[in-house]
Specification:
Blueprint lengths: L2 E8 L3 H14 L4 E2 L4 E2 L5 H11 E9 H4 L5 H9 L8 E6 L3 H7 L1 H4 L4 E2 L4 H14 L5 H4 L3 H11 L2 H10 L2 H7 L3 E10 L2 E10 L4 E9 L15 H14 L19 E5 L8 H13 L3 E4 L2 H8 L3
Parallel strand pairs: 1-2, 1-3, 1-4, 4-5, 5-6, 9-10, 10-11
Antiparallel strand pairs: 7-8, 8-9
Length: 311
């Protein structure tokens, strides 16, 4: 197995930097190797980086006060540059809570490297790393052997709703991860008011019955709210339909779903991307979800996060 990047970090920076950065990189389709490179006192930095680069194209090194407090020998810090093969850039430094003057004291050679900085946000760092990795010649595992998350991300970018439904049928673990591990049965072809839904069932051992959730796949480019924070008429209509199903005034998709209980049925509409929403739009979406029973609106990042969760 080959990886696009490995992330080398001090153990103190795992929760605050390494995990969210890994999640952001995998959400962009990269293959990331993480846990083998959590550095503790007594570890060999050069050996760790060299081992990571043996299986990865690039090494992301999170430079922080915790990292530098390991008191690496100067030759070992400067040696990060020496492990790069054939003159190609392989070490991608990421500064976390440090400045140029601090790093100069420990490693003048590393201080002169262009670096990402978590002060600009993890998402911006991840985007810069992804752009560099994909632009470098020589092939990349993200393209040659894309992960499940990478393939899902590609389908979302293409906006192919039919292919997205096919993908979820082939990879039901994505929906299980998004909804919870107890949701194990996937049924396609059910409809509510001529709208196709993907239904996912959870079998209740205590009562030997099923409960069901429905997923509607909208177009990834369609925002769930407009610039004023208003929910689209289509989504309002679907919410009202589900309310009628739950109150039994509108038939639900009973023929396809054993033990279907309208009062327990919930529909989730997936549309748009989280990155396109302003804070006000996100607040409006959260308010809508809080006010409506049996109906939720999620962006496609909900599925992407489930498919690329590094934990």
């Amino acid at each position: 197995m080959r990886w696009d990047v490995f992330v080398s970090h001090a153990s103190e920076d795992k929760e605050s930097v390494a995990l969210p950065l890994t999640k952001a990189l995998t959400a962009r389709g990269l293959r990331v190797w993480l846990d083998r490179h959590e550095l503790k006192i007594g570890d060999s930095l050069r050996q760790s980086v060299d081992e990571g680069l043996a299986k990865s194209r690039f090494g992301v090194v999170v430079l922080s006060e915790a990292f530098l407090s390991k008191r690496w020998p100067l030759w070992e810090l400067n040696g990060l540059v020496a492990v790069e093969r054939g003159g190609a850039k392989a070490i991608l430094p990421v500064w976390h809570g440090i400045n140029h003057a601090t790093l100069v004291k420990h490693s003048p050679m590393l201080a002169d490297r262009i670096a990402g900085n978590t002060a600009n946000g993890i998402e911006n760092v991840a985007t810069a790393i992804t752009n560099l990795v994909l632009a470098e010649p020589g092939g990349t595992p993200a393209v040659d052997t894309p992960s499940v998350g990478g393939r899902l991300l590609d389908l979302v970018h293409r906006g192919d709703q039919v292919a997205l439904e096919e993908f979820l049928a082939v990879h039901p673990a994505v929906l299980r991860s998004a909804l919870g591990r107890s949701w194990v049965e996937l049924r396609r072809g059910a409809k509510i008011a001529d709208v196709r839904i993907v239904c996912v069932g959870s079998f209740l051992q205590t009562t030997s019955t099923w409960r069901w959730r429905g997923i509607i796949l909208g177009h990834p480019s369609d925002p769930p709210v407009d610039r004023h924070g208003a929910i689209s008429e289509t989504l309002h209509h679907l919410a009202s339909l589900v309310a009628r199903v739950r109150s039994r005034t509108t038939p639900g998709p009973r023929p396809q779903l054993p033990d279907f209980k309208p009062a327990d049925f919930e529909l989730i509409a997936v549309t748009g991307r989280r990155s396109t929403l302003t804070k006000e739009q996100s607040a409006a979406l959260n308010e809508f979800n809080d006010l409506h029973q049996g109906f939720r609106i999620r962006t496609y990042d909900w599925l992407i996060d489930a498919a690329t969760d590094p934990t």
